[in-house]
């Protein structure tokens, strides 16, 4: 038997309007954490779970609970039509996420998305569709509030120490590199420091890729993939006789859940796409 405290929904106040939630990518590690978190939230109800893995099984044992009466199904379109949710939370893979978002929007469902790896074209198509349908959509490279603060602090530091390199470290099952968080960090750093280019033009890589990927203005991004890691990033600034490091570590996937809950609640009152959790935190 699983932990009894996760086996039933929380006590809810009479008259409380519940947000109906479907989780896509529910069988994965992030998906399981979202399932548990939504199940425990007093203002939410888990109405569906989608994943081609484990199809037909009850989702309760995925987070260590007894059966809860919600089964994994393989077809998102069918689940959305049958359960009529308010919000779809997506932690799937880069090859399906854009289509999942469009499917949700066409069903009148608001997406909250943590899957990274979408192209600029896909993002623009989603912005246009969400705007046309007047539906909220939150897409965040990282839902950990500490990671969002790291990015904000990095933008401030870049104004004074514009020489920057980024090292991001993740578990070895992550499909995309560099991470969405690293790209977002590089974007805000580049914007903060303006017209600046770093690096030695005459340097030579003895092993291709040894200096990492090169972002705008010569910002180098290095990706590490190893078992035992969850999600980590260090932003290193160099100046005359000094360095500054800003680092964030997600020790467990629980670190992302306060941000996911915030996004689920806030997306209900949005129109169009909000990209980045910072736009909900620091508005």
UniProtKB/TrEMBL annotation:
InterPro entries: DapB_C, DapB_N, DapB_N_CS, DHDPR_bac, NAD(P)-bd_dom_sf. The active site is at 170 (proton donor/acceptor), 174 (proton donor). It is found in: Cytoplasm. Keywords: Amino-acid biosynthesis, Cytoplasm, Diaminopimelate biosynthesis, Lysine biosynthesis, NAD, NADP, Oxidoreductase. Residues 146-281 form the Dihydrodipicolinate reductase C-terminal domain. Transmembrane segments: none annotated. HAMAP family: DapB. NCBIfam families: dapB. This is 4-hydroxy-tetrahydrodipicolinate reductase. It comes from Desulfofundulus luciae.
């Amino acid at each position: 038997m699983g932990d009894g405290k996760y086996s039933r929904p929380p006590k809810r106040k009479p008259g409380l309007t519940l947000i109906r939630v479907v989780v896509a990518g529910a069988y994965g590690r992030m998906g399981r954490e979202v399932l548990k978190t939504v199940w425990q939230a007093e203002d939410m109800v888990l109405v569906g779970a989608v994943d081609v893995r484990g199809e037909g099984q009850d989702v309760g044992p995925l987070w260590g609970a007894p059966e809860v009466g919600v089964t994994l199904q393989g077809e998102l379109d069918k689940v959305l039509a049958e359960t009529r949710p308010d919000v779809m939370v997506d932690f799937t893979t880069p090859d399906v996420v854009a289509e999942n978002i469009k499917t949700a929007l066409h069903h009148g469902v608001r997406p909250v998305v943590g899957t990274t790896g979408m192209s600029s074209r896909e993002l623009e198509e989603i912005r246009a569709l969400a705007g046309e349908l007047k539906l909220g959509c939150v897409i965040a490279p990282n839902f950990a509030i500490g990671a969002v603060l790291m990015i904000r602090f990095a933008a401030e530091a870049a104004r004074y120490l514009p020489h920057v390199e980024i090292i991001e470290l993740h578990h070895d099952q992550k499909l995309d590199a560099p991470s969405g968080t690293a790209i977002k960090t590089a974007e805000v750093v580049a914007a903060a420091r303006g017209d600046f280019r770093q690096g030695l033009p005459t340097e030579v890589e003895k092993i291709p890729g040894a200096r990492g990927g090169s972002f705008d203005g010569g910002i180098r991004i290095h990706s590490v993939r190893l078992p035992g890691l969850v999600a980590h990033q260090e932003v290193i600034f160099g100046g005359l006789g000094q360095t500054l490091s800003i680092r964030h570590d997600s020790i467990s996937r629980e670190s992302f859940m306060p941000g996911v809950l915030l996004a689920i609640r806030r997306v209900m009152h949005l129109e169009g796409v909000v990209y980045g959790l910072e736009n909900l935190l620091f508005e």
